[in-house]
Amino acid sequence: MWGIGLQIGVLLKGGGTSDLSYLVAATGAGVDFVFVLTGLTDAQRTAEVINWQMIEDLLVRVDEWASHQDPPPSPAERVGLIKMFYTQFCDSGAISALAMSSTFDFYGARRA
Q1: What are phi and psi of 89, to 5 degrees?
Q2: Closest listed residue to residue 34, CA positions, set 45, 47, 18
Q3: Looking at the predicted structure, is the pLDDT value of residue 11 above 60?
Q4: Which residues touch 43 (CB under 8 Å, ≥6 apart)?
Q5: Label partner for 111 (CA 20 to 30 A): which of 10, 14, 44, 57?
Q6: What's the pTM?
Q7: Looking at per-residue confidence, does 2 or 104 come out higher?
Q8: 8 A C-beta contact, residue 86 and residue 50
Q9: Is the pLDDT of residue 6 over 50?
Q10: Dist CA 8 CA 13 (whole Å)
């Protein structure tokens, strides 16, 4: 059994080619070189960068708002709001209560 260093060395040599065509072909065949190098899948890498605390905070705020709606929004509508808010706030890392309130007012008026 080869060690990972030897495997990478063989891959980088590309069977004697002097360009990156081997790596491109291997990637096209489904080799995930980031996984080979880090041992992390796409899902694991993604999970590391998600701000889970923000998602939890958004869930609480959306559920609080939803509890006062008649009829209450569907789970799909709530998830859509959480996705929208997360996209809006994730770069700054801060939730804007004012922006959420304005969105809830607008969204609630459209649902009525």
Answers
A1: -105, -10
A2: 45
A3: no
A4: none
A5: 57
A6: 0.63
A7: 104
A8: no
A9: no
A10: 8
